[in-house]
Design goal:
Structural class: alpha/beta
CATH superfamily of one domain: PDZ domain
Strand order of the largest sheet: 14-15-16-19-20-24
CATH class of one domain: Mainly Beta
CATH architecture of one domain: Roll
Helix content: 25-40%
CATH topology of one domain: Pdz3 Domain
Distance between the termini: 14 Å
Length: 548
C-alpha cells in the first residue's frame, strides 16, 4: 500500500501523510497520531500536487526524526553485507510474528551460498542467493531491485522452455494450456487440454510444489498466488535441460511419457501463461520489470471506455496523483450517461498513494468507512505504533449503480485498498479467477547492498479498526482480497482465455446484467463525517530511477 513512484536519477524516501485546513494533530481514537483529516479526496480534488507534496513532507517531519535512515552496506563484502541485512530485517521487519518467519533458519540456509558466491566472485550466484533468501519470506513487499541487472542469473535458470505451458484447474487437474507451433511438444502430439500427471518422474502436484518461485516478478504472498507462479515456472529450465513429461491424451486412458529438451523461446511459455491479466504479458522475461511490463498491458494512465450495454470500464494501474483527474472525469461521465454498471479493473495495479486508494473507494460507498490505522513497527516492544489513520468518505457525485471489481495476484499494495473497502462494505462484487497479492504493509527501501542492490521490506502494518493486521497474508498464506464471485477455471474457460477472450470481464458483465434495475442519478449523500476525529493515512512514497 505504499507508493513506488519513479523519477529518473533520484532515490528519495518520503512518508506520505496529509495536512489540510481540517487537519489537527492527535486524537483520542489514535493516540500519538500526527494528523487528522476527514476526507482523503480533499488533496486530489484541490488538484495542486506541489502543495500536496509539501504537506506530505511537513506531515512526515515529526516521524522522520525517529525513523532509521536507509542502511548503506554497499562498501562491505558480500558476506558482511548479507549478515548486516539479515540483522536489520530480523530486527525491523513488521510481520515476523504475523507470518511466522524463522530468520535464523533462513540465514543458515542461504549464508553458505552467499559465502560461496563471494569466494568465486560470482555475481549471478550472489544475486540468486539473495533472491532465494528474500523469496523465502512470503511477502510480496520483501524484494530486491537490481539497478545493475541480474548478471545473467535469470536466463541461466529459466531461459529455456519446453514449448508448452500448464494450468491447474479448479478440479485439481493440471492440463496443457498452450503448445508452441513447431515445437517438439507439438511434434510429439501434445495438444491443448491434455492432462499432465507427472514431471521428471514426480507426481505433477508434488513437482509443482517443489518448483522454485524466485523468478516470479510480483512475488506471491498467498497460497494460490504461489501455486500459480510455480505452475508457470515448472515448464522453465536452463537451455538444453531435458524433462520427461507424463501425458494423458484426451480420452486415451494409458499415459505416455515423453522427453523434451528446453530451448531458447524468448520466454514464450511465460508470456502465454499470464492469461489471468486478460492479456499476453512477458512479465518474468522482461528485462526491466519497472519499465517493461505495464506498457504491454497499456500505455494509458487510466483506461476508460464504454462497453456494449452502456457499461463503463475503468482500468487503474497505480495510485499516482495524476490518475485522479482522469478517474474523476470517467466517473462524472458515467453518471452523466446514467451507466447501468461499472467495471473497475485492478488486475495490474502496482499500488501507490494510500490516500488516493481510499479516495477512489469514496466514489462508490454510501457512508463513511474506516480505511486503516497506519503504523510503524517498534523493534523494542515488538508492537505496532499507530502513526495515522484514514476514513473513506462518500463523494458528492458518487456512483450508485452496481460495480464489479477485477483483481489478480498482480494486484498489490495500495491496489488492494479499494477492493478491501468493497469487501468490508459489500459495495459491488469482486469477480476474478484469483485473489489479490496480500502485501499491504508500509513498504520502503531499507538497505543498499553491493552491486547496486536495493532491498525493500515493510516496517509498518495497516490495521483495521479492531487493531488487527488487515489484507497482509498470515503464516498460513491466507490473505489478500478474495473474489466474492470466483470465475471457474475449467478447460472450457481456459480455452476461451487462450483464444483471446477476457473471460473474467465476461463474467463481470454477466453479473452486471443480473443486477439491472433502474439506476438512480448521482445524489449528495446524507451521511455526515463520523463524530470521532479521523486521521490521515500514512503511506510510503518511494522515488527510484526507472519507471515502475
Amino acid at each position: 500500500m505504499n507508493a513506488r513512484f519513479v523519477i529518473p536519477g533520484v532515490l528519495l524516501l518520503l512518508l506520505t501523510a496529509g495536512v489540510f485546513p481540517v487537519a489537527a494533530a492527535g486524537s483520542d481514537s489514535c493516540p500519538g497520531c500526527g494528523m487528522v483529516w476527514t476526507d482523503t479526496c480533499v488533496p486530489f480534488e484541490r488538484n495542486n500536487e506541489t502543495a500536496y507534496n509539501e504537506e506530505l513532507i511537513a506531515a512526515f517531519s515529526p516521524v522522520a526524526a525517529n525513523k532509521t535512515p536507509l542502511a548503506d552496506y554497499s562498501n562491505r563484502s558480500l558476506s558482511e553485507a548479507f549478515l548486516s541485512l539479515h540483522t536489520l530485517i530480523n530486527e525491523r521487519y513488521a510481520f515476523t510474528q504475523w507470518r511466522s518467519v524463522d530468520f535464523d533458519a533462513l540465514y543458515k540456509t542461504w549464508a553458505p551460498a552467499i559465502a560461496d558466491a563471494e569466494k568465486k566472485q560470482d555475481k549471478a550466484a550472489y544475486y540468486r542467493a539473495l533472491r532465494g533468501y528474500l523469496v523465502a519470506i512470503p511477502d510480496g513487499h520483501v524484494e530486491v531491485l537490481d539497478t545493475n541487472g541480474d548478471f545473467g542469473a535469470k536466463y541461466a535458470d529459466i531461459g529455456g522452455g519446453y514449448g508448452l505451458a500448464l494450468t491447474r484447474l479448479d478440479s485439481g487437474k493440471v492440463i496443457v494450456s498452450y503448445v508452441a507451433n513447431g515445437s517438439a511438444a507439438e511434434t510429439a502430439g501434445i495438444r491443448f487440454g491434455d492432462e499432465v500427471t507427472g514431471w521428471n518422474g514426480v507426481e505433477i502436484h508434488d513437482a509443482i510444489n517443489a518448483t522454485s518461485s524466485i523468478w516470479a516478478v510480483k512475488k506471491p504472498s498467498t497460497t494460490e498466488g504461489l501455486l500459480l507462479q510455480k505452475t508457470r515456472l515448472l515448464t522453465r529450465a536452463p537451455v538444453g535441460a531435458s524433462a520427461s513429461v507424463k501425458i494423458t491424451y484426451g480420452a486415451i486412458q494409458h499415459p505416455r511419457t515423453m522427453n523434451l529438451m528446453a530451448y531458447d523461446d524468448g520466454y514464450d511459455s511465460l508470456k502465454k501463461s499470464s492469461f489471468f491479466l486478460g492479456k499476453e504479458v512477458n512479465d518474468i522475461g522482461a528485462a526491466n520489470r519497472l519499465t517493461d511490463i505495464q506498457p504491454q498491458v497499456s500505455t494509458d494512465t487510466l483506461t476508460y471506455r464504454t462497453l456494449p450495454g452502456g457499461y463503463v470500464y475503468i482500468a487503474i494501474y497505480d495510485e499516482a496523483y495524476e490518475v485522479y483527474e482522469p478517474f474523476r472525469a470517467a466517473m462524472l461521465d458515467a453518471n452523466t450517461k446514467n451507466a447501468p454498471g461499472v467495471v473497475i479493473d485492478f488486475r495490474y495495479n502496482s499500488g501507490g498513494d494510500d490516500n488516493l486508494a481510499s479516495c477512489f473507494a469514496g466514489w462508490f460507498v454510501d457512508k463513511p468507512v474506516f480505511y486503516e490505522y497506519a503504523t510503524m513497527f517498534d523493534p523494542g516492544s515488538r508492537r505496532f505504533t499507530p502513526v495515522s489513520g484514514a476514513w473513506t468518505q462518500p463523494q458528492p457525485a458518487r456512483y450508485t449503480g452496481p460495480v464489479a471489481v477485477l483483481v489478480s495476484p498482480d494486484t498489490i499494495s495500495s491496489g488492494e485498498g479499494l477492493p478491501m473497502v468493497f469487501a468490508k462494505t459489500g459495495t459491488g462484487k469482486v469477480i476474478s479467477w484469483y485473489g489479490s497479492n496480500g502485501a499491504f504493509g508500509m513498504n520502503g527501501p531499507q538497505a543498499v547492498l553491493p552491486l547496486g542492490m536495493y532491498v525493500f521490506f515493510p516496517d509498518g502494518a495497516s490495521l483495521g479498526q479492531d487493531g488487527v493486521v488487515q489484507v497482509d497474508s498470515n503464516a498460513s498464506l491466507t490473505g489478500g482480497i478474495a473474489p466474492q464471485i470466483r470465475v471457474p477455471l475449467t478447460e472450457e474457460t481456459v480455452a476461451r482465455a487462450m483464444a483471446g477472450e477476457d473471460v473474467q470481464l465476461t463474467y463481470a458483465l454477466a453479473w452486471l446484467d443480473e443486477q439491472q434495475v433502474p439506476v438512480a442519478t448521482a445524489t449528495t449523500p446524507k451521511a455526515s463525517p463520523p463524530v470521532a476525529v479521523v486521521v490521515v493515512t500514512l503511506g510510503l512514497l518511494v522515488v527510484i530511477a526507472g519507471k515502475k
